[in-house]
Amino acid sequence: MKSLTVGNLEDCLLRKVDLRRQLISQTMEEIQKVVHCLTTEISHQDIRFQAVPYSDAYNGNIKVLTPSHFLVTVPMKGLAGYREAKERHWRYYTLQGARLRTPVRSPEDLQQWLEVKQFMKNLWQWHEADVNIEGDIVPAKVLQVFQKLVENAVRTCHFSGKVSMLERYGSVIWVAMETSACQVELELVPAVEIPTAWSAKARWPRCLKRWPSPERVECIKSFGFDLLARSNYHWQLSFCRAEQVMLELLDEDGGCRRKCFQVLRQMKEDVWCPGKRPVLTSHHLQTVLFWTCEKYPHSKDWQVFSKSFLRLVQKLHKCVSQHFLKHYFVRKSNLLRYANSVELDAVAQKLVAFLKNPQISLP
């Protein structure tokens, strides 16, 4: 076994980063073909769902959470001209449409209700009882419809040997897929894309912050947000497009932010938190990166790889050990709120060991 310190860790891990990129690229190509076929069939069965396009470049509907776990957002069609809800009112219905004596709990900070009337243009199908209760588009009912469509599409597209439905976990529809390299898991999520507005819950940027620049902030916010069907009553806010733009603009002023993030992700996947459904994903690391970039906004803060990388690891350790990581755009939301405490503590211990002796052992 050979030990590497942070000083010569960079070249070694960047080679592994490049191998990862090649593997992901090959896997993504296979996933795109399957997802495009499945969602095309789904859109033929139900006009409310849109096919995920195949793209030779970056596909914004497929996000890599780990090399074997991909988030696939399936756009919902026939909802345009979004407006924030003006009045708040309690909901007293069950998912079966029965009346409750006490109201349904309010949305958490990264969630919201969604009413058909919030869209100036909407298909009449969104008023149907299979997805709508008292004017609300209900995520749980959308997921019921969507799951049946996915099951039918797997059979119709003759993917029975390549793609299989996994047992549903909470409000998530999982699909297992065999690729040429390995088996991967796809998390299929219906999404309302809102590219023309910025969520009122995302009070960003914060005052007197120098990163990103005011010009870049306007560009980032122009990409809007999405609402994902990932719970029973409430829609989850997502800012994938805005976050992707931020990643693409990381080092436009020079520095090694991207390199630090890539090496951090590689260490997380190889050493600190490996596995198919780890407690930490690329999105957690990305959020840690954004907060660190905001705290250290200048190019001069990101010139020396070893110093910059260790600063990022320290921030990650602080968040993991405290079980607290603020969403970058919606600060009141803790991304680790429902994470497994035992798994987080195990990762924190590995990070402590690394920070005390910043080296890794390779064959």
Automatic annotation (TrEMBL):
Q: Which residues form the Mab-21-like HhH/H2TH-like domain?
A: 256-351
**Pfam families, alphabetized:** Mab-21, Mab-21_C
Which PANTHER family does the record match to this protein?
CELL FATE DETERMINING PROTEIN MAB21-RELATED, PROTEIN MAB-21-LIKE 3
The residues forming the signal peptide are: none
Q: What is this protein called?
A: Protein mab-21-like 3
Annotated Mab-21-like nucleotidyltransferase domain residues? 58-248
- Gene name tied to this protein: MAB21L3
Family classification:
Belongs to the mab-21 family.
